[in-house]
Backbone:
């Protein structure tokens, strides 16, 4: 069974995280979830999620996700994903703010997101960063280049439109299917290019 860690940081686009959680919960995966304080603020505004960092409870998660996700505190550097001996099979930071990109690229490891990402890189595990920022500064681009050179998959939040999606959820699902491709899980989806 694969273990997937999903991290939500403080960039707009939390719908991608929500749709990824739904899709991943339907697979044979062990799921971990870490939401930063900034990510919680954005998720509250965009999705109506309420994160209680004391009890590690998230209200507003989709019903099919509840009970299938193990929650981690963003400051818990004793969490198992902070160690190379317990690295997840894959980690997706979705959405990934440029602040998170900068911390990961600098190797700070001062929170669970940046430490777990560093662990994935050093253990040669799949790390997917769904970059969500526009425009990007030269600093952002250099950080992303450094991370790509270190082995991370950089996936700007750029969903396809050629299948004429009828809703934001459908559009996000098209993109999430591509994210899952990057971690070795192929889900059939009408948004795939058929030629």
Residues:
């Amino acid at each position: 069974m694969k273990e997937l860690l999903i991290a939500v940081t403080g960039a707009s686009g939390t719908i991608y995280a929500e749709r990824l959680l739904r899709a991943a919960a339907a697979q044979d995966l062990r799921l971990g979830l870490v939401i930063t304080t900034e990510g919680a603020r954005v998720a509250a505004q965009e999705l109506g999620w309420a994160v209680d960092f004391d009890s590690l409870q998230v209200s507003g998660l989709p019903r099919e996700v509840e009970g299938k996700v193990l929650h981690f505190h963003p400051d818990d550097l004793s969490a198992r994903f902070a160690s190379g001996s317990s690295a997840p099979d894959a980690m997706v930071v979705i959405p990934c703010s440029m602040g998170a990109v900068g911390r990961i690229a600098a190797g700070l490891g001062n929170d669970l997101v940046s430490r777990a990402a560093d662990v994935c890189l050093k253990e040669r595990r799949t790390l997917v960063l769904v970059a969500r920022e526009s425009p990007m500064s030269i600093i952002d681009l250099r950080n992303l280049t450094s991370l790509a050179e270190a082995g991370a998959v950089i996936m700007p939040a750029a969903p396809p439109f050629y299948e004429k999606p009828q809703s934001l959820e459908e559009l996000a699902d098209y993109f999430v299917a591509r994210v899952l491709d990057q971690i070795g899980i192929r889900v059939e989806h009408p948004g795939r290019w058929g030629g």
